[in-house]
Structure formats: structure tokens, C-alpha cells
Amino acid sequence: MVGSAIWRALESKGYTNLIGRTSTELDLRSQEAVNEYYKKELPEVVIDAAARVGGILANSEYSYNFLMENLQIQNNLIDAAHQHNSKKFIFLGSSCIYPKHAPQPLKEEYLLTGSLESTNEWYAIAKIAGVKACEAIRKQYGKDFVSLMPTNLYGPHDNFDLKTSHVLPAMIRKFNEAKENNHSSVVLWGSGTPMREFLYVDDLADAVVFALENQLKHNLYNVGTGKDITIRELAETIQEIVGHKGSIEWDASKPDGTPRKLLDISRLNQEGWKAKIKLENGIKETYKWFLKNEKKFKEMKIDNS
Ligand SMILES: NC(=O)c1ccc[n+]([C@@H]2O[C@H](COP(=O)([O-])OP(=O)(O)OC[C@H]3O[C@@H](n4cnc5c(N)ncnc54)[C@H](OP(=O)(O)O)[C@@H]3O)[C@@H](O)[C@H]2O)c1
Known about the structure:
Blueprint: H1 2-12, H2 31-41, E1 45-48, H3 56-61, H4 63-83, E2 88-92, H5 121-141, E3 144-150, E4 152-154, H6 167-180, E5 185-189, E6 195-196, E7 198-200, H7 201-213, E8 220-223, E9 229-230, H8 231-242, E10 247-251, E11 260-261, H9 266-271, H10 279-292, H11 294-298
Parallel strand pairs: 1-2, 2-3, 3-8, 4-7, 5-10, 6-11
Antiparallel strand pairs: 6-9
Bound molecules: NADP nicotinamide-adenine-dinucleotide phosphate (NAP).
NADP nicotinamide-adenine-dinucleotide phosphate binds next to α1 and β4.
């Protein structure tokens, strides 16, 4: 999702000399393959949007893979960029790097001030190592390596598989299937009261281009909208956009997760970047993309549990 959005943003800004590979063409876990690739291409700028990603279930079932593959991917990319003198490196992490009980909104300086959320600590520890590697190269060699930590993202190419998807695409799919099958009610997990922040992926891509075109002062920046909404409000917004008529039932026996998770975005704002896309508009665009690609998702079995 993120890599293709950045590619679209770069093309629309007139960048032409773009190079990229899928995981089957270049397995970033292989240091040898990555080194060969850098030797041949000598990239001036590297944007690392590759990672092994997934939810709580995947993190707990594949803890070793989440830790090790992410370390391998980012270490290979970062060190080869250093060895082959890439001028700029942009590392993408996630807000799960911050301590579980850090005050809200989350500021960059809260990194490593407390223990992590245990369900995704494998992933978070790898991402923290990536942030620190970029910081160390910056400090020791004065190179322009920077880390961006986005909040929850959504948009075209999101994951709509209900077993592994995040809340926003899962709701789009559930409301759409309820509408198509004339189901009057939709059951959603939890109480609906937690608050979450959502950033449209094209806004993140715009932030990446901003980081590419400007020399930023710090090594680490949060990227978000600075605004959060309750899961209940999100559900009602999506229900209206999808056009489902009926009730929403909250299954309070299912976990809510942390009550609030909001990023402090003042550091990137002070550099001159702000998110532009309103949540309603982003959801409308995501729903349009979902409808265009719906057949693919219908082949995946819906899991209402
Ligand atoms: N989605 C979110 O809500 C969110 C929020 C905050 C931060 N982020 C960050 O954004 C980044 C991208 O996430 P995403 O949502 O775009 O995930 P995604 O859609 O699953 O994309 C991950 C990409 O990584 C590539 N990849 C994985 N293993 C690889 C390997 N061994 N070799 C080469 N490529 C490999 C995949 O390539 P193939 O498709 O070819 O397999 C895929 O293109 C991650 O660093 C994530 O932490 C995402």
C-alpha cells in the first residue's frame, strides 16, 4: 500500500528515474542480493517501504519472522545505502515503537522511555533498531538518513482480508457486504469508544516526498493528522459512505485495545508539512478502489467472528 502510493506521488511530481523491485525479483532479506543490486543501480535516494507487516495474530504466531525479517530488510538496505554512498535514506516505521503507557499525544522524544505493547514488540523492536541505525549514521557520518513514523494508514491497496486487516478496511468490507446481502445489522468488535487517528496513504506519500525534497533538522518525525475519532464515529461515517441502512451492534466481549493513540505531529508541522486529505474524502476514495477490486476480495471467505 505505502510503496505504491509513494511511487504514484513521485510520478505525479515529475520524477522519472524511479527504480523498484517486488519481493520475488529482489528478496531484501538477502544481504548479498541487496549489495549486488546497489552496486548495479547506485541509487541516489532510498525509500524503505518494505517490511513484514501484520496484526496481533500474525505477530504472535510469527514472532521470530517479524523480528528477524524486518531487521534483515532494513539492515541490508540501510548499510548498503551507507556503503554505496546514497545521498538520502527515508526509513518508514510505525507508531508502535512508542511505549505502551506513554502520555498522549505521542511525542518523538518518548521513544525508549518505557516498555512496549507486548503483542507487537517483535515488530516494534526491529523498527526501533532501524530508527537508531539511521540516527547513528546521521550522527557519526553526517548523512541525511531520516525516519518517518506514520499513524494508522488507509487507502488504495489496503488489506481487506478480515482475518488480518486493520479496523478501517475491515469496516468498509463488512458494511459493503451487509448492504449487498440486505443484512440489517452489522456486528463490530469492542465497545466503539477507543479513539484512533487515521492518515490517508497519499498524505503519507506527500510527507515522504516532502522529506525527500527538504533537509530535515531531526532524525525522527511522526506523520499523522493530529486528530482522532472514536471507533463508533468511524463506523457511522463508513456506514453512511457505503450506504448501508441498518443498525450497528457492538460486541463488547471482544477486546478494545488501548483507549487512545494519537501522534503529536508538531515537529513535522514546524518543518512546514501538514496532512491535507479529510477522513471522509479519503474513505470515499478507498471505497471506490475497493469496489473496483471487489471481485478479488469476494474470493476470500468473510469471517464475521
Ligand atoms: N499500513 C499501515 O497502517 C501502516 C502504518 C504505519 C506504518 N506503516 C509502515 O509502512 C511500511 C509499508 O507498509 P504497507 O502497509 O505498505 O505494507 P504492505 O502493503 O504489506 O507492503 C509491504 C511491502 O514490503 C515488501 N516486502 C516484504 N518482505 C519483503 C522482502 N523480503 N523483500 C522485498 N520486499 C519485501 C512487500 O513486497 P511484495 O508485495 O512484493 O511481497 C510489500 O510491497 C511498513 O514499514 C509499515 O511499518 C504502515
